[in-house]
Amino acid sequence: MKPTEINAVLAWEALDSRGRPTVACRVTLAGGATGRAVVPSGASTGTHEAHERRDGGSRHLGQGVRQAVAAVNGPLTDLVVGRDAADRRAIDAAMEALDGEPSLGRLGANAVLAVSLAVSLAGAQSSGVPLWQVLNEGEDPLIPLPMINILSGGAHAQGMLDIQDVLAVPLSATSFAQALEWVVRVRSATAELLGARGGSSALVADEGGLAGVLESNEAALELVTAGIQHAGFRPGEDVGLAVDIAANQIFTGRAYRLAREDAELSTDAWLSRLERWCGSYPIVSIEDVLGEDEWTAWRTATVSLGGERQLLGDDLFVTDVARLQRGVQEGVANAVLVKVNQAGTVSRAEDVVSAAKAAGYATVVSARSGDTEDDWLADLAVGWCAGQIKVGSTMRSERTSKWNRLLEIEGDPRLNSRYAGRGVLGSTIAR
User: Fold this and answer.
1) Are residues 104 and 198 in the same domain?
2) Is 293 a residue whose pLDDT tops 90?
3) pLDDT at residue 196 in the model
4) How high does pLDDT run on average in the chain?
5) Nearest Cα to 43, choosing from 13, 17, 70, 79?
6) Are 115 and 184 in a shared domain?
7) In terms of residue numbers, what domain contains 313?
8) Is 207 a catalytic residue?
9) 313 and 178 within one domain
10) Same structural domain for residues 288 and 418?
11) pLDDT (tens digit, 9 = 90+) per residue, 110-164?
12) Which one is catalytic: 207, 287, 294, 410?
């Protein structure tokens, strides 16, 4: 038996950062190398993404994953034991074929992804190199530009705002370590301003961002912009804003409903409002501005909003090559959010990164609101040379584990690492 052959697989039910069950998996190779992964899960999810398998019933309020765990310990184990972990893409393809559904809904995308990640990690350990090095085919590590959560609403903060997140992008930082330090200062300054306005900085949303009741959605943009200034930075020069609208959460099928403001806007009126926000605040990236299937309106938005900033598709593309290719053909958006659990396997997500780069779209590797203490996401972003990463805020260990892994890679003097910096946004805007 080759040392890279899989000889054991074990899955169990674990907890994600919101205390909800998720699938954990350990793959052991004949030579003793192991890979362990705990699968993340989202709150704001697109209907077209790969399907998690949940148990239903009363246990864990229906969120249990014992059936998905059983799928790993049964048919998926039977499939992969004896295979070479170095052939990770072939293993992913075999698991997809065994499931038989594009959504991976029969066995469960959470089951398939747990094995896919654990196999990739075990193969890297067996090779004696980190995961990013397995993925990047000999290139020097590219440390991504971070967009970091400052203030949350939507599904991440019990609807305190209609929009989901306002994030800081450290534009002028010259290293990842400096970028992170700058945003820590911005978050602290924003918390101070929020407290002065009667809010509580003790309220922390799913991804570690501040959460507070504000008079309007625009007030959130104003607050974080003021926080950038209060921290001693120039808005739009040193630090810009990224905004995650998560429009699926406010789209009624006819209009965009802003409960916080008791307003319902047509698509044209909603886009006009977004244009005004982009003209008034230093927004360099804006995500999911419209519903996931509003392709015609997305084309309009790409012309009106995407010429001077990153227009990012999350629920729109759901880390799916076919949906991304449609977007490219129809001139929709100019960047794609990459979430491995939307895709269901590492290979599928990797293919989306490759297709996006070939089309000139920017790529942003992203965590989920229900994430885990694993740090492999940082290695994926570096190994794929994605250029950008979106993890959450600067607190909560499931967030800092990724930031700390990037600090480790950047800080290793043996590596000729490069920091992506704001240039990845400039290349997107120049498309």
Assistant:
1) no
2) yes
3) 87
4) 94
5) 17
6) no
7) 142-429
8) yes
9) yes
10) yes
11) 999 999 999 999 999 999 999 999 999 778 899 999 999 999 886 555 557 899 9
12) 207
What's the pLDDT at 431? 40
170 with 111, same domain? Answer: no
Regarding whether 235 and 151 lie in a shared domain, the answer is yes
Task: Let me know if 275 is a catalytic residue.
Answer: no
The answer to whether residues 172 and 120 belong to one domain is no
Domain membership flag for residue 277: yes
Query: Among residues 339, 350, 390, 402, which one is catalytic?
Result: 339
Q: Is residue 359 part of a domain?
A: yes
Domain count of the chain? 2
Q: How many CB atoms lie within 10 A of CB 2?
A: 12
Q: Looking at the domain assignment, is residue 155 inside a domain?
A: yes
194-245 confidence digits (pLDDT tens): 988 876 666 688 888 998 888 899 999 999 999 999 999 999 999 999 999 9
Query: Does 409 lie in the same domain as 314?
Result: yes
